[in-house]
Amino acid sequence: MIQMDSEKVMERVAKGTTTLGIIFKDGVVMASDRQSTAAYIESRFEKKLHKITDNLAITTAGVVGDLQYLVRLLRVEANLYEMGNGDLTVRSMATLLSNILHSNRWYPYIVGVLIGGYDKGPKLFSIDPLGGLGSGEQFFSTGSGSPIALGVLETSYIEGLTEQQAIELAEKAIGAAKERDIYTGGKKIDIAVIDKKGFRLVE
């Protein structure tokens, strides 16, 4: 991979998708569109919401090859950890990925990732291509449509959302991005809920 400066890395991650995570009263809702875009629409079925373990998942924005590799790597690392140590916390997984990305900062993975899950309560983290770890917010969004999605989330999010309210808000935010961002689209919106019962996709 050709060495890139941080500004160019962030610029490339900002193109091509919209993903988000929302903390609600009893868990986390994560959502993404399905469109993969380069100079044209490569795929309208690209999966960007991935289950890593029974209690956590990630959404991905950026270069597809980098993202697919990192998803495989995180699944292997999680399985290895859980065989010897029990359940992996959401923060531990976020820290692991942050360390992986930071250690490759001179030849970075072109990715923007959200990690969300449930352990002793809902957790949500945002990680940039150089390993910067964002936390403390009740919602995050990545990708080219994130300014539009964040506008919806900022105006509509309230403390103590129910699961159904969070699902509807996620759908509304991704839908708004699909309407106004040319890089966001696809045939469907993927939405998942992660709570004390585990990970499940919303049909």
Task: Offer a few descriptive terms.
5-stranded antiparallel sheet, 203 residues, Glutamine Phosphoribosylpyrophosphate, subunit 1, domain 1, 5 helices
Q: Describe it for me?
A:
The chain has 203 residues and is α+β, with helices and mostly antiparallel strands. It has a single domain, classed as Aminohydrolase, N-terminal nucleophile (Ntn) domain (Glutamine Phosphoribosylpyrophosphate, subunit 1, domain 1). It has five helices and twelve strands. Strand 3 and strand 4 form a beta hairpin. Helix 4 packs antiparallel against helix 5. The N and C termini lie far apart (38 Å). The mean pLDDT is 87.
Strand order of the largest sheet: 10-1-2-11-12
Q: Any idea of the CATH class?
A: Alpha Beta
Question: What gross morphology would you assign?
Answer: globular
The largest pleated sheet is described as: 5 strands, antiparallel
Number of extended strands: 12
Helix content: 25-40%
CATH topology: Glutamine Phosphoribosylpyrophosphate, subunit 1, domain 1
What integer is the average pLDDT? 87
Order of helices and strands: HEEEEEEHHEEEEHHEE
The total domain count is 1
Can you tell me the residue ranges where pLDDT is under 50 for at least 5 consecutive residues? none
Helix/strand/pairing class, anyone?
alpha+beta
Radius of gyration over C-alpha positions, nearest whole angstrom: 16 Å
The CATH homology group name: Aminohydrolase, N-terminal nucleophile (Ntn) domain
The second-level CATH architecture is 4-Layer Sandwich
What is the tally of helical segments?
Answer: 5
Distance between the termini: 38 Å
Instruction: Please indicate the percent range of residues in DSSP E strands (runs of 2 or more).
Output: 25-35%
